[in-house]
UniProtKB/TrEMBL annotation:
Full protein name: Peroxisomal membrane protein 11C
Subcellular location: Peroxisome membrane
Main location, first listed in the record: membrane
Transmembrane segments: 125-145, 204-227
InterPro entries: PEX11, PEX11C_met
GO biological process, alphabetically ordered: peroxisome fission
Gene Ontology terms: cellular component: peroxisomal membrane
Keywords on record: Membrane, Peroxisome, Transmembrane, Transmembrane helix
Amino acid sequence: MASLSCLASALESYRGRDRLIRTLGYCCQLVGGILVEQCPAQSDVGMRLLALSTQLSHCRTVLRLFDDLAMFAYTKQYGLGAEEEDVFVRWVSVLGNLADQLYYPCEHVAWAADAKILHVDAARWWALSTALWGLSLLLGIARSLRMLLKLRQKLQNPAAAFPGKLPRSRRKALETQMWSETLTLISNLADLANAVHWLPPGVLWAGCFPSWLVGLLGTVSSVLSMYQAVQTHNSQADATSP
């Protein structure tokens, strides 16, 4: 019952619902791609799963039409990252926020072109939005690598950052943060591989992935994102409990 209640609570929030739709969509693509390519007898089921995956992806695209304001509020709140200790992390984060902010209107134009609302080249706008997403992922990867390096230095040489002996609670917090950054890094790498795949043909491995591999990479990224969200929720619950 506790798990059911947790799931219902997650579905009441936009982010929780989006994570579930994303995970379900990529799982359908993974299983559907395998059935179509490896099990000819089940190819009809596989095609239906791929069609469901496409519709779930379209659903997320439509829901993202309303994300611009939330992204703008976050970008404005972060500003130039004055609270960041590391200059590299600060500017990588600022550039990442800028790429994310530009991504949404480009995707909206591409969606509107597909829906025949705007008479523009949809493929060009989809390529631009995908390139911005890929740039954001690259910047996120650079940020995670830098954070991992800084955290590792703090753990290996605690005297440089903390006078005296490093408290056990502080060490555990640093290790937890390292684990979180590692998961973020893996998730971004998986998404980046897919982002390149969706770029126009001729760019690295663009268009070369089979459906099941796209589904696998997306599933890995989505499951890691859901796991991190659950861990964050549990940490917040522990912090607020008496």
